[in-house]
Amino acid sequence: MKHVQTMEEIHSTIGQDGLNLLYISRPGCSVCHALLPQIDEVLEQYPAVQAVHADADEIPEIAGEFSIFTVPVVMVYADGKEQFRKARFVPVDEFEEQLAKLNRLINE
Q: DSSP for 65-98?
């Protein structure tokens, strides 16, 4: 997962065709650090998904732009439109199920 440091990089990624993922965290968030490798593991099954990781402390405006009130946040976009969002407690199995479903729809 590529680390991004600007809103321009985020918009460039999530606005692309296909499936794209935005993972938002903070350095002091233990849940964020535990969840990231699990999300990466799921993404290994979907090499076409463009995934970026943003630190909310490095990009303070991200909270207002995406209405983020807590971290971690996993957001999945299909052809530039938000399709899935989970925050704080992200069930990995639910994330994987939704990603598989969206992947099937995109590739039909």
A: HHT--SS-EEEEEETTEEEEEEESS--HHHHHHH
- Against a cut of 0.85, is the pTM above it? yes
Query: What would the pLDDT profile of 10-56 be if each residue is shown by its tens digit?
Result: 999 999 999 999 999 999 999 999 999 999 999 999 999 999 999 99
Radius of gyration of the chain (CA): 13
Rounded Cα distance between 25 and 36, Å, is 9
Domains and CATH numbers, the chain: 2-106 (3.40.30.10)
User: Which of 67, 61, 59, 60 is CA-nearest to residue 87?
Assistant: 67
Residue among 28, 65, 5, 106 at smallest CA distance from 75:
65
